[in-house]
Specification:
Low-confidence stretches: none
CATH class of the largest domain: Alpha Beta
Helix content: 25-40%
Shape: globular
Structural class: alpha+beta
Number of domains: 3
CATH architecture of the largest domain: 3-Layer(aba) Sandwich
CATH topology of the largest domain: Rossmann fold
Number of strands: 21
CATH superfamily of the largest domain: HUPs
Strand order of the largest sheet: 3-2-1-4-6-5
Mean pLDDT: 90
Largest sheet: 6 strands, mixed
Distance between the termini: 41 Å
């Protein structure tokens, strides 16, 4: 941890009187980082602004964490700023929480004219992020995890602990007898990152105690390659995507790697801080749309963005969903307004309510996915008569806030053929029965 102190002084070249915003949850990582900054404050008379975000998810102890960080700031003459997230939208929770946090940090950086925003991401976090992205699929930039230093418009985001392991952080806390809060949700296997942290990363460390250094080098190398390719793509991007509309004829003249980067760059310009919503699958389906023989077609992507192909042009536009009303024709892959995905798959070994098999002799294509309508009813598989969708939501204990955006799959005659994740209809076929289409909800 002493190298962190030295890096801040020598590599980052923090100067006397600089203002620094630091994100502090009260957990071991952020409290270790904050303690280093308190030591540095005494040497350089820094202005430390502690930014605490109360995610207000109902988890026990969140307000105690807020009080704990506030008291530490008073004891050490630090500026304490906090915000409570009052409500979330219908987006991906973790991504939305991250966006809110960083927007808050940006606001504080402007308020205090801070040159730096520090976060406590460490070496183990980088390993976890890279492995999760590899498993999930991502962009070249995404596979790199996160950067040590990111240049924003008026300030830098810095992750000073990126070379430090979790064990080193705990050793530092013990050395200085520092107190911290423990988030019990970090032990729950329901969260993907927790499973990687508890079961997968330790196996890598058994192979090599310095594996975190290898992952950092891997990350740095990918970023260097990505930056080089980006420079080449930027030279031709405006010719191929004039006024944010892709010229398919010019696009097809490029090498496959350049084509992929052009698509990713279009996505990055539209998603900005929400890039974590994207995977390599999104690039693939956009590429397939460009290559398809259809003159006009629409593809739905996360955050209600759609890719619209019209003859020789392809454009990414924002779909305006008013009052939770939507109706989307089912294509190869959809990211739904509730943040879930609907995909046409070739086969599936499972047969639960997340899979639907349909035969076009009993349902009329094309298929659509829409929001629920007043009075919606469906014939549930294995039951006589029709059942109200509203009653199914109640029986399945679906939160009221989730019901309006819950997907309802219908055929061309508006027969409800499937309530994804909840109930199948009489139209759904068994695993061994003949079917023309298999839909997967996840």
């Amino acid at each position: 941890m002493d190298k962190v102190y030295d890096n801040l002084l020598n590599r980052l070249k923090i100067k006397y009187g600089d203002a620094i915003v630091v994100g502090v949850s009260g957990g071991p990582d952020s409290m270790a980082l904050l303690h280093i900054l308190v030591r540095l404050k005494k040497a350089l008379d820094l202005q430390i602004i502690v930014a605490h975000v109360n995610h207000n998810t109902g988890r026990k102890g969140q307000f105690e964490e807020q009080k704990f960080v506030s008291n530490y700031c008073m004891e050490n003459s630090l500026v304490f700023e906090t915000m409570i997230i009052e409500e979330y939208g219908d987006d991906n929770f973790h991504n939305e929480a991250r966006s809110i946090r960083y927007n808050y940090f940006c606001t504080l950086a402007k308020k205090y004219h801070a040159k730096y925003v520090f976060t406590a991401h460490h070496a183990d976090d980088l390993i976890e992020t890279i492995l999760m992205r590899i498993v999930r699929g991502s962009t070249l930039r995404g596979y790199s995890g996160f950067s040590e230093v990111v240049k924003m418009n008026d300030y830098y985001i810095v992750r000073p602990l990126i070379h430090v392991t979790k064990d080193e952080i705990y050793a530092y806390l013990n050395k200085y007898n520092l107190k911290y809060m423990t988030d019990q949700s970090n032990n729950k296997d329901v969260y993907t990152r927790n499973r990687f942290r508890k079961y997968i990363v330790p196996e890598f460390k058994k192979e090599d105690k310095l594996v975190h250094e290898k992952f950092y080098k891997f990350s740095k190398t990918l970023l260097e390659y990505n930056d080089y390719i980006d420079k080449q793509v930027n030279k031709i991007y405006n010719k191929i995507v004039p006024e944010n509309v892709l010229n398919i004829e010019e696009f097809l003249k490029q090498e496959p790697l350049i084509q992929t980067k052009i698509i990713y760059l279009m996505l990055e310009k539209n998603y900005q801080d929400d890039l974590m919503l994207l995977t390599d699958k999104h690039c693939e389906i956009i590429h397939n749309l460009i290559l398809s023989k259809k003159a006009n077609a629409t593809l739905h992507l996360p955050n209600n963005i759609q890719a619209v192909k019209s003859y020789n042009n392809l454009e990414l536009t924002k779909l305006n969903i008013k009052d939770n009303i939507y109706e989307i024709q089912i294509s190869e892959y959809l990211n739904l307004p509730n943040g879930k995905n609907l995909e046409i798959v070739k086969s599936s070994k499972i047969d639960d309510n997340n899979i639907c098999r349909l035969d076009f002799s009993s349902v009329k294509p094309p298929l659509y996915v829409r929001n629920r309508h007043d009075g919606d009813k469906m014939t549930v598989k294995g039951m006589l008569g029709r059942k109200k969708i509203s009653d199914i939501f109640i029986e399945c204990k679906i939160a009221t806030k989730d019901r309006d955006l819950w997907p309802v799959v219908c055929d061309a005659d508006d027969n409800i053929v499937w309530l994804p994740g909840l109930k199948k209809s009489k139209f759904c076929k068994e695993k061994l029965e003949k079917c023309d289409i298999i839909l997967k909800y996840y």
